[in-house]
Amino acid sequence: MRKLAAVLLTALLTAPPAQFASAAPALGKVQGAVTLAGRPLAGVDLAFVERQTGAVQRATSGKNGAFEARLLPGNYMVTTENRVGLVVGKGPALVPVVAGRVASASIDLLAVSAAIWQEPEQTPTPDVEPAPQRTAPVDIAAPAAEAQEPPAQTPSGPVTSEGAGAAITFEPVTCFVQGEFPLLDAAIVPVENVARSRVYFRAAQGASFYYVEMTQEAGTFFGKLPRPRIEASPITYYLQATTTEFEESQTPEIEAVVVEKKGECGDRKPAAFGPPGEVTVFSAATGTSISPVGFAAGGAAIAIGTIALIIGGAAAAGVVGGIVANPSPTPQPTPTAEPTAIPTPIPTPVATPTPITAVTP
Questions:
Q1: pTM of this prediction exceeds 0.85
Q2: Cβ distance 241 to 200 under 8 Å?
Q3: Residues 210, 202 contacting (CB under 8 angstroms)
Q4: Strand partners, 27
Q5: Which of 82, 111, 140 finishes a domain?
Q6: Which of 104, 110, 136, 313 could form a disulfide with 89 if both were Cys (CB 3.0 to 4.6 A apart)?
Q7: d(CA 310, CA 322)
Q8: Whole domain around residue 82: which residue ranges?
């Protein structure tokens, strides 16, 4: 009996406490189907972009166009990847994902020949891209100014978008600082009709465009670009918005120089500095994630919670468009938890059995 009690006590002491088991984060699920002109389409890569954090999750449609994605709770925008000319024609503007629940999303694609299309990228070499090819002969006798392509705009005031989609109002930023994340902000109205907003950009070394998804907070859209290098100057970029009715609008192309220090911007408007963290960059030609030429590696989308920390007074140093560059909030000390005393277990006494005396008749 004593041996059995010792075995049971050992098993109880060595068993892991149930309260220390860590639970996996609760996920929600999005299910649906991808169609093209009403016909199921397999092999389509979908990107789910969380509106507040900019986090990107992906799924691929399978047989009969069906797809399934397990996502953290949030509100997600849906876009396509790696299919030039195929864009979301009809679909939900936002897909709400709730932990433990299943959301439905039907995505009908639209083939658009006029969709933004760039020359296919060649096999990349380090920091070098082929120079753009001219389609018309150049008169070598003409002055140099006439032989050059017209530069992108360097407007001095706000610019507005062209197109039938949402109206974009943007204060052009024309100076980036090397090694810092340029942070661009714009107003796009009506906000509730915006299904997707992006910043398209390219470095001086090549003609291929890249893009980043913009995030939205309190009616303002933010785009965080990767860190540029000096050799990327000048950088050409523009903003584009797509509505839930697939109406597009975009700003004119804007040119920004890259300098070593902010003080070298001169009369040019410098970009605010975005917070550290990865930037998810996509190729405009293929829609796949890529490391753009002319920009430092590293650095995914900007978290809106971080944006709230960097919005401040316009008089602060490095403020552009009401956004404080390189914010450094004063860290708050983390309270030290007092250890809880663990009581010493008191063993339960085991009753000694009373011997049975045999009675002889």
A1: no
A2: no
A3: yes
A4: none
A5: 111
A6: 110
A7: 9
A8: 28-111
Number of domains in the chain: 2
pLDDT (mean) for 266-285: 89
Q: How far apart are CA 219 and CA 168, in angstroms?
A: 12
What is the arithmetic mean of pLDDT over 226-231? 94
**Location of structure tokens 């389509």:** 44
Within 10 Å of residue 138's Cβ, how many Cβ atoms? 11
Q: What is the per-residue pLDDT across 322-339, written as a single tens digit (0 to 9) for each?
A: 333 333 344 445 555 555
What backbone phi and psi angles, to 5 degrees, belong to 331? Answer: -70, 140
pLDDT band at 297 (very low <50, low <70, confident <90, very high): low
Comparing CA positions, the residue from 79, 97, 100, 84 lying closest to residue 26 is 100
Say what the alpha-carbon torsion angle 203, 57, 30, 112 is, to the nearest 10 degrees: 20
Rounded Cα distance, 120 and 129, in Å: 12
Please give the Cα distance from 9 to 328 (Å, whole number): 54
Cα separation of 35 and 54, whole Å? 26
Cβ atoms 44, 80 nearer than 8 A: yes
